[in-house]
Amino acid sequence: MNGVPEPTIVVLTALEVEYAAVRALLAERRVETHRSGTRFEVGRPPGGRGSAVLALTGPGNQAAAILSERAIAAYDPRALLFVGVAGALHDDLEPGDVVVGTKVYGYHGGKDEDSGFRARPQAWEIPYELDQLARHVAREEQWLPDGRRPPVHFRPIAAGEVVLNSRTTPLAEQLRTNYDDAAAIEMESAGVAKAGHLNHGLPVAAIRGISDKADGHKHAADQAGWQPVAAANAAAFAFALAAELP
User: Fold this and answer.
1) Distance CA 36, CA 40 (A)
2) Does the model's pTM come out above 0.85?
């Protein structure tokens, strides 16, 4: 896969609604097929600077890690962005808000014994440069083309292997006890962050739009159309961030 102009970023998504939100912002798209069968779409991001490589990982940290490694090896990107939706873990976040993960917790590690669950998490912080650029973008008013400006939160994200739709289950209690600063929950960013870490510290950022409040009402939020709104907000912020990369 040669001939991709620099600078290149890789944007990964887990769901079709997330993929569609990113794809809608790319111009001059072309499909490139990896020898494994993975189909990447390569296009020009808003502003026309460099290239963006888009792929669908499917749900889960394991799949996200594998596709991240594949994209990194094929395109040698400047940065890797995971863009999608997430459930809110705190009531001060509303559907449509954007969360930039200052830290990603791989929260499923631990030891379960008679005295209770002992967390043994992995965690990856956002690179300082990306954090500073993202905060700059959040202060600007033009990162959404229609003039809307949903709140952007800079807080940790919890990434596991479970769709959480309750505030009262044992998992919800575990998150409150051990990861109280996590603002959102999803299923892919830990795998992506690990892949970046294993590739000479490639800069990785998790950018998530809040689509529900993980409180038992996910179906109603999905029916109300919050997933495409949240995905579109995350995609717009991700490309505004990418445009600031040196």
Assistant:
1) 11
2) yes
